[in-house]
Design brief:
Flavoprotein-like_sf; two-stranded antiparallel ribbon; Flavodoxin_fold; alpha/beta; NAD(P)H_dehydrogenase_qn
């Protein structure tokens, strides 16, 4: 759905059209959500980046474009660059033994980076929009980002297990605890073509669209921006994608 089309944007400002577009997006992330309405307040955005070369890569340019566009649109943005953070993505035996405990109740010696994990969880509870920028490697997110999800989307923080007296469970069988998150975005680069990614099943998209999104607000939408065949893309194609990212993020 191209941005910058005035007639289309005006159409999507209509309440019924926005409702239908949002519902379609929740059914499939291949249908983009409606653009930001002029009356929508600025968002509190948690923006994550996962690339070992940081901003000295094309994926880093995607991150910088996303960050700049969100700020220029008036949103409050907190960033996390997982490689710069030195994040340890591997689950340890102590993580498993105390998995069902609230993180704040775990023994410090078993979770030496507990303070960092608590900060990440505080950011997840602070934001009302969550955006991931990362390269797709072997059809999914980098290990450091998958590990960040493993170690921060925890019981009592991101979800609880259903009980007879708990609120209703989501479609994935968990009771969501991150209902503050109303929007999710992904900007990712693929080395493979669109056809190959679809043949494999696009596991990275499924993890976020079908696995994580049910832990957020029931009306949460997902914007997915992917550049396919990135390794063989021309400079003009890369610039076109950055322009697309800029356009979408200004209306996020």
């Amino acid at each position: 759905m191209p941005r910058g089309n005035k007639e289309l944007s005006l159409f999507l400002w209509d309440p019924l059209s926005r409702f239908l577009a949002s519902a379609a997006n929740r059914w499939t992330s291949f249908i983009p959500p409606p653009p930001r309405h002029p009356s929508d307040p600025p968002r509190r955005v948690l923006l994550l980046h996962a690339h070992p070369m940081g901003t000295s890569s094309f994926n880093g340019a995607c991150f910088e474009t996303t960050h700049r566009s969100l700020q220029e649109a008036g949103h409050e943005v907190q960033t996390l660059s997982l490689y710069e953070e030195g994040f340890q993505p591997c689950m340890q035996a102590s993580d498993i033994r105390e998995y069902m405990k609230p993180l704040s109740d775990r023994h410090d010696e078993g979770t030496p980076d507990k303070a960092a994990l608590l900060r990440y969880i505080d950011l997840l509870k602070w934001c009302d929009a969550l955006i991931f920028v990362y390269p797709t490697w072997w059809y999914a997110m980098p290990a450091i980002l998958k590990g960040w999800i493993d170690r921060t989307f925890l019981p009592h923080s991101a979800f609880t297990l259903p009980t007879p007296t708990s609120p209703p469970a989501s479609v994935v069988g968990l009771v969501p605890c991150l209902k503050n998150i109303k929007k999710v975005g992904v900007v990712t680069t693929y080395g493979s073509s669109y056809q190959v990614i679809r043949y494999v099943g696009d596991p990275g998209r499924r993890i976020i669209a079908r696995g994580l999104r049910p832990l957020f607000d029931a009306q949460c939408t997902l914007l997915w921006l992917g550049m396919y065949s990135c390794d063989t893309a021309s400079q003009a194609e890369r610039e076109d994608f950055l322009a697309e990212v800029n356009s979408y993020m200004r209306e996020f």
